[in-house]
Design brief:
Blueprint lengths: L1 E11 L4 H19 L2 E3 L5 E3 L3 H12 L7 H22 L15 E4 L4 E4 L2 E7 L3 E6 L12 E8 L2 E11 L5 E7 L3 E6 L2 E6 L1 H20 L4 H36 L2 E6 L6 H4 L4 H24 L4 E4 L15 E3 L4 E4 L5 E3 H14 L4 H10 L2 H4 L6 H4 L14
Parallel strand pairs: 10-13, 13-14
Antiparallel strand pairs: 1-9, 2-3, 4-8, 5-6, 6-7, 8-9, 10-11, 11-12, 15-16, 16-17
Helix pairs in contact: 1-3, 4-5, 5-7
The structure holds zinc ion (ZN).
The site of zinc ion has 8 residues, from loops.
Length: 406
């Protein structure tokens, strides 16, 4: 199967501030003009009546006194049309608060592929036709891969350039499938027959620290609302950056492990899963679990696919409550342990989840692993210390002997 994989990178640049400012000026004009073409039906529904002729006219108006490359005008018009259409959708659902507005806090310019060239590692973006360019040497940034097919769109802001690279990849048939279960404070994985745990406590700690900061700022907001808002944005940005950085490192490490054994990944399909299935704890923890899971899955998927290894999703409903040995229901058995009501198997709930995800994802029972588990059942397993659990799980490759159907 061939798929297109996209990666995005940020690099610092000396931004063409004059272009960015001019771009936002014409966006304001475009917004004023295009907004005049919002029509309302008798039933009060809005729609945009902006013809190709209207667009040509607006383009010509905006091009007067425009010294930068012409394509920026098209990009500005497209961006405003997108904005207005988004607003109309909200309006028709009764959710639009005011008229459409251009956010000036986030000054970004979309650079179409007609505005740049890429040769020998150097990205050359046209600012003014035939005389002014912004050149970025991508070879300076070792982490940007050079094995891409093409560069997608670029996004320019006042500090950096966001580069998306694309590659068409032929997904290999993996030699095995790993299953990964994302929790609030750890990621549990079953990779090539071994249970491995990755600690998320550091990430959890980052979130808590910033949560505390936000609580303090909230108190400040009564007296100094503007300062509070600025601080809030600053800390939210920092939190996001630190958390993302953590996830990048972690997913990079896991991908390395998976590549070593040529393994695909089985992940939980979180679509349509209600919050309470994710985590029954407090609202904040629920939010964090969700963020962890989505960010982790997103990063792992594109990084793995970039290297030609596939990812599949499995419904995680009851994955930590179903006995991986006999399919009966399991119930809480103190701490993170679960006990099967029928066969008395006692296992850590995250381990139950990865075992189930793996079997369900493969459609077969990893027989050898289950047999090894069965032989370990009873006292030894019950008394197993949780923290050392992964060391004691049998290291067999479930994929070699996976003949038993469920
Ligand atoms: Zn059982």
């Amino acid at each position: 199967m061939r798929v297109e994989v996209i990666k995005a990178y940020k690099v610092p640049i000396e931004a063409p501030k004059d272009l960015i400012n001019a771009y936002f000026k014409i966006k304001e004009i475009a917004l004023y003009e295009i907004s005049r073409h919002i029509k309302y039906s008798k039933r009060g529904k809005a729609h945009l009546n902006f013809s190709a002729e209207d667009r040509r006219e607006l383009r010509n108006t905006l091009l007067r006194n425009w010294r930068f490359s012409k394509h920026y005008v098209d990009s500005a018009i497209n961006s405003v049309i997108g904005l207005v259409k988004g607003w109309i959708k909200l309006y028709n659902r009764g959710k639009a608060k005011s008229k459409p507005k251009i956010k000036i806090t986030k000054k970004t310019v979309y650079v179409k592929n007609t505005l740049f060239s890429y040769r020998n590692g150097i990205l050359k973006i046209s600012i003014e036709p035939y005389k002014r360019y912004l050149e970025v040497d991508l070879r300076k940034y070792g982490w940007i891969p050079d094995d891409f097919d093409k560069i997608g769109g670029l996004i320019l802001n006042e500090k950096e350039l966001i580069i998306t690279v694309k590659k068409e990849v032929k997904l290999e048939k993996p030699q095995c499938w790993a299953s990964l279960d994302v929790n609030l404070t750890n990621i549990t994985a079953l990779i090539n027959g071994r249970v491995v745990r990755y600690d998320l406590k550091k990430l959890y700690h980052i979130h808590r620290v910033y949560e505390e900061k936000r609580r303090k700022i909230q108190r400040l907001s009564k007296h100094k609302p503007k300062t509070a808002k600025r601080l809030m944005e600053k800390y939210s940005r920092r939190e996001r950056n630190r958390a993302k950085d953590f996830m990048h490192k972690l997913t990079g490490k896991i991908v390395e492990e998976l590549v070593k054994v040529k393994s695909g990944a089985i992940l939980e399909d979180l679509k349509g899963i209600k919050d309470d299935v994710l985590n029954k704890s407090k609202k904040l923890n629920r939010k964090l679990s969700k963020w962890n899971a989505r960010t982790f899955q997103f990063m792992l998927e594109y990084k793995l696919k970039w290297l030609g290894l596939p990812v599949k999703y499995v419904s995680p409903v009851n994955s930590s409550k179903t006995c991986p040995l006999c399919r009966a229901e399991m119930s809480a058995y103190g701490g993170r342990l679960m006990k099967c009501k029928k066969c008395n198997l006692v296992l850590d709930r995250d381990v139950v989840a990865v075992l189930n995800l793996q079997m369900w994802g493969l459609g077969v029972a990893p027989k050898a692993l289950l047999e090894a588990l069965a032989s370990m059942m009873g006292k030894r397993l019950v008394n197993q210390k949780l923290t050392n659990f992964h060391e004691s799980l049998p290291t067999v490759n479930p994929h070699i002997n996976n003949t038993g159907r469920l």
